[in-house]
Amino acid sequence: MAEINIDAKFLQCPGPIVQLFNAVKSVQSGDVIIVEATDRGFYKDVQAWCRKTGNELLSLEDGDVIVAKVKKA
Amino acid sequence: MGNKKTIIVFSGDLDRAMAAFIIATGAAAMGDDVTMFFTFWGLNILRKAKKVQVKKDFLERMFGAMMPRGPEKLGLSRMNFGGLGAKMMRYIMKKKNVNTLTELMENARALGVKIIACTMSMDVMGIRKEELIDGIDFAGVATYLGEADEANVNLFI
């Protein structure tokens, strides 16, 4: 199970979601992607994205930098 | 998983065009098929920045010269102030690291967003295929309606 880090800091909407989408496309099922973003909307967006795409949101930290861990379904 | 979204882009305003492409890109990043149908003023968003030599009559030439050529030339729907407002908006957006409309369009297309230009409004406005960006489709209202029938969201911008 690989772990991939995505730096989406300072990207505005919809940048972080696009980065996450492209990353998930390029990895195997079960791999984990960690996204760091500063776009305030990403906190809610990543939850909606996971619900819609069926990938699992393992953890989500709020703060100046929002950190989301997503496991590919 | 994936649904379909259709967006009609009627407006040729910078702010509205950006909203349209942000939604299209976001939907594509959520795994949806997206089709954008460009009609009337929206066609200007698809124009190449450089003038293309094509045969036109007098009125068509006038029309073509008065309308903005591509995403870098569009004005704002509000507070445009003869283009000054749009300049300021572009400056602020650059400062705040927002993608330019050109970049948004590239991103959208890289994610597979389909672009269709309305042939009827192209004819009315005297815009030829050669003047629009490459890799797009040309069709009419039936094509759009066929796509909209399969979509669960349809926007008119």
Reported by name, the CATH topology of chain A is Translation Initiation Factor IF3
Largest interface, per-chain counts? A-B, 15 and 14 residues
Could you tell me the radius of gyration of chain A in angstroms? 11 Å
Separation of termini of chain A?
12 Å
Strand content of chain A: 25-35%
Helix tally of chain A? 2
Q: H/E series of chain B, N to C?
A: EHEHHHEHEHE
As for the CATH topology of chain B, it is Hypothetical Protein Ychn, Chain: A
Could you explain the architecture of this structure?
The complex is a heterodimer of chains A (73) and B (157). Chain A has 73 residues and is α+β, with helices and mostly antiparallel strands. Chain A has a single domain, classed as TusA-like domain (Translation Initiation Factor IF3), CATH 3.30.110.40. Chain A is 33% helix and 33% strand. The model of chain A has no long low-confidence stretch (mean pLDDT 95). With 157 residues, chain B is an alpha/beta fold. Chain B is 41% helix and 15% strand. Chain B is built from 6 helices and 5 strands; from the N terminus they run E-H-E-H-H-H-E-H-E-H-E. A 5-stranded parallel sheet of chain B has the order 4-3-2-1-5, sandwiched between helices. At the A-B interface, helix 1 and helix 2 of A face helix 1 of B.
Task: Please tag this protein with its features.
heterodimer; A: 73 residues; Translation Initiation Factor IF3; globular; B: 157 residues; alpha/beta; Hypothetical Protein Ychn, Chain: A; five-stranded parallel β-sheet; 5 strands; 41% helix
SSE layout:
The complex is a heterodimer of chains A (73) and B (157).
Chain A: E1 3-8, H1 15-26, E2 32-37, H2 42-53, E3 56-61, E4 66-71
Parallel strand pairs in A: 1-2
Antiparallel strand pairs in A: 2-4, 3-4
Chain B: E1 4-9, H1 14-29, E2 33-38, H2 58-66, H3 84-95, H4 101-110, E3 114-118, H5 119-125, E4 137-139, H6 141-150, E5 153-156
Parallel strand pairs in B: 1-2, 1-5, 2-3, 3-4
